[in-house]
Specification:
- This protein has a seven-stranded mixed β-sheet, with helices on both faces. A three-stranded antiparallel β-sheet has the order 8-9-10, covered by helices on one side.
- The protein folds into two domains: 216 residues, Type I PLP-dependent aspartate aminotransferase-like (Major domain) (Aspartate Aminotransferase, domain 2), CATH 3.40.640; 120 residues, Aspartate Aminotransferase, domain 1 (Alpha-Beta Complex).
- The chain is α/β, with parallel strands linked by helices and 342 residues long.
- The N and C termini lie far apart (68 Å).
- It is built from ten helices and ten strands.
- Helix 2 runs parallel beside helix 3, helix 4 runs parallel beside helix 5 and helix 6 packs across helix 10.
- Helix 5 links the parallel strand 4 and strand 5.
- The longest helix is centred in the middle third of the chain and has 36 residues.
- Helices cover 39% and strands 15% of the residues.
- This is cysteine desulfurase.
Length: 342
């Protein structure tokens, strides 16, 4: 009975995740996070379909969990085309179309960029690929729960998600794998043949339940969250962009309001973070926090190494308050004045 109750909880969470992206519950495969979901989708599909072609397409602005998969596949004999984003960080459908070849078997692009917050038109790209023989994988770690996603109408074949970007627990994620027509991927973790043979391992019931509940809350509150965070972001940017030398990376592109990437001309991120010590800000993505190299995303949109070193990513969320926004503006304004005096 205890096992049946646990299974029922897992299947309820599977339904909650599937509902958020308009999928069938049988199309949801549990993983340890979006990194594993990306690995399973990209490597699993490429290795299972290598006899059909060895050309793959992605972009220079992808998350490291995607780029490192393609780098590994290059070592396995695959050829990869890395699309360059425009100055705002967006990948166009036309650039995907120009890169397609007869032997292209997989296109993998993120929905929302994790450093810039800019949105790729996944629906347009999906429509372009509908008539092609290649698979379309989308990294939706930053968009699930923040933007409306319909995997069927957007012609997405595989989609990676994680819980912690949607206020759920760390260490759990999911991969949507299209069921009809059936999509075959090679398992990377072998064992008891769990998750319909795609991902073996005992399921972390407590984390999965948390992910399901967080996705259910996101579905119910998405519009309200978007309106609130948009207002907070506008309030923040309207004041911060008045400061001399501060500019917005990705400006002009459609973007989510919860991610902002600011450039501070003439200053380096490490010094900025010292004077902004009361703010939780980052000079890049969490996965590259130990690296001294400038952001590969900022370099991909044309920033020099020097300019890329002077950028900070600032995020807003469901629990951010107007008082915190006003305090952040004050800290940044005072910090820039202090650095200029020094």
């Amino acid at each position: 009975m205890f096992g049946w109750q646990a299974e029922a909880s897992v299947e309820n969470a599977r339904r909650q995740v599937a509902d958020l992206i308009q999928a069938d519950t049988r199309e949801i495969v549990w993983t340890s996070g979006a990194t594993e979901a990306n690995n399973l989708a990209i490597k699993g599909y490429a290795l299972n379909h290598k006899d059909e072609g060895k050309h793959l397409i992605t972009s220079q602005a992808e998350h490291k969990a995607v780029l490192d998969c393609f780098e590994w596949l290059e070592g396995e004999g695959f050829e990869v085309t890395y699309l360059k984003p425009n100055a705002q960080g967006v990948i166009s459908a036309s650039s995907v179309a120009s890169a397609l070849r007869d032997d292209t078997i997989l296109v993998s692009l993120m929905h929302v960029n994790n450093e810039l917050g800019v949105i790729n038109d996944i629906a347009e790209i999906g429509k372009l690929l509908e008539s092609k023989s290649c698979c379309f994988h989308v990294d939706a770690a930053q968009s699930a729960g923040k933007l409306e996603i319909d995997v069927k109408s957007m012609s997405i074949d595989m989609l990676s998600m994680c819980a912690h970007k949607v206020y759920g627990p760390k260490g759990v994620g999911a991969l949507y794998v299209r069921r009809r027509p059936p999509l075959q991927i090679k398992a990377l973790i072998h064992g008891g043949g769990h998750e319909r043979g795609m991902r073996s391992g005992t399921l972390p019931t407590h984390q999965i339940v948390g992910m399901g509940e967080s996705f259910a809350v996101a579905a119910a509150d998405m519009k309200a969250d978007h309106a609130k965070i948009s207002a907070l972001s506008s309030r923040f940017l309207s004041e911060v962009l008045k400061i001399d030398g501060v500019s917005l990376n990705g400006r002009g592109a459609q973007s989510v309001p919860n991610i902002t990437n600011l450039a501070f001309a003439g200053f380096e991120a490490d010094r900025l973070m010292m004077v902004f010590k009361d703010l939780a800000v980052a000079s890049g993505s969490a996965c590259t926090s130990a690296s001294l190299d400038p952001s590969h995303v900022l370099r991909a949109i044309g920033l020099s190494d020097r300019d890329a070193h002077g950028c900070l990513r600032i995020s807003f969320g469901r629990f951010t308050t107007e008082q915190e926004i006003d305090r952040a503006i004050e800290i940044i304004r005072e910090g820039i004045c202090k650095l200029k005096k020094l």
